């Protein structure tokens, strides 16, 4: 119940289904209700498989990673996100104002 509530509270879930998901459903409708059923089943099974692998890696990975290594990984990924944000902001400004 908590997982369902968390999913429904996530605005990106609605955005994905209203855009990309709707496009896939439209394509799968070309194959009738069976196509929609296969698309939805495949989508749910892919989510289940990928999240199960992620959960297994997180649970078993605790034995192989120290707190210091974990903090280092988080720091590196944080810097990467900052660099990516700067890149996208710069690209947006260049696009809007045509500054090359």
Description:
Helix 2 (11-28) packs across helix 3. The protein starts with a helix and ends with a helix. The chain contains four helices and no strands. With 100 residues, it is mainly α. It is 87% helix and 0% strand. The chain is flat and about 50 Å long.
Largest sheet: none
Following the backbone from N to C, one meets helices and strands in this order, namely: HHHH
| Helix-residue proportion | over 70%
Please compute the radius of gyration using only Cα atoms: 20 Å
Spans of at least 5 consecutive residues with low confidence: none
Q: What distance lies between the first and last C-alpha atoms, to the nearest angstrom? A: 51 Å
The shape is flat
Mean pLDDT: 90
What portion of residues belong to β-strands? under 5%
Tally of alpha and pi helices:
4
Number of strands: 0
Please, what is the oligomeric state?
single chain
| Secondary structural class | mainly alpha
Indicate the topology:
Layout: H1 2-9, H2 11-28, H3 32-61, H4 67-97
Helix pairs in contact: 2-3
Features:
100 residues, mainly alpha
Short description:
The protein is mostly helical. It is built from four helices and no strands.
